[in-house]
Target: ABC transmembrane type-1 domain-containing protein
Amino acid sequence: MSLRLLLLGTVIGIAIGVVVGVAGAIRQYKVSDYVSTVFSFVLLSTPVFVLAQLLKFGGLELNAAAGTTVLYFQGEVTPSFQGSAAAELLDRLQHLVLPTLSIALGQIALYSRYQRSAMLDVLGSDFLRTARAKGLTRRRALFTHGLRTALIPMATLFAFGFGLLLTGAVLTERIFGWFGMGDWFVYGVQRQDTNIVAIVTLFAAVLILISGWLSDVLYAALDPRIRIR
Model:
């Protein structure tokens, strides 16, 4: 359950965050850059439990405006749900939207700030000027050479973001009633169950080790100076 929720939220957060960060760097000091910067800082300074409650209020308003239940706020699926496979899939998606947004919005704000900074570092680099001098258009030079280089320092951030997926959304799982790894860890602490706490801690440690390896793989894939043999 944790994987389905957090993987989707993190992938959306990374993808949109990278796009927003790159756009902000390319259009530095433009209106769109200021707007994305303000929204990013607002989201980064908003606690997860506050953001989740605001999303719930927004969902309530949407349901009231639609005159029917468009979004659900608790659990993975409606209890005792009966219907076709397509209807069940739709019900699960309706439960998935709000908790996914609560994760994705924070990720978008975080990754967009890092990506903007990394992209600004390469915009005035010599290799981009050389690419333009060889006849490449600005767009192609930026996205073929500049973006790939700007993603290299982000590799570690991406890797460890994925590595801590299953243990990194305790508040989101608690607020939206998703019984995942984080919620299970809180349950273990509340019940003073050392076995649960030890298992989750060990699992998190293994994920961090895997993240370190994944970081190296991403570096090798993104850095044109490195060839995997």
Notes: The mean pLDDT is 83. Residues 101 and 188 are 27 Å apart (CA to CA). The domain at 1-227 is CATH 1.10.3720.10 (MetI-like fold).
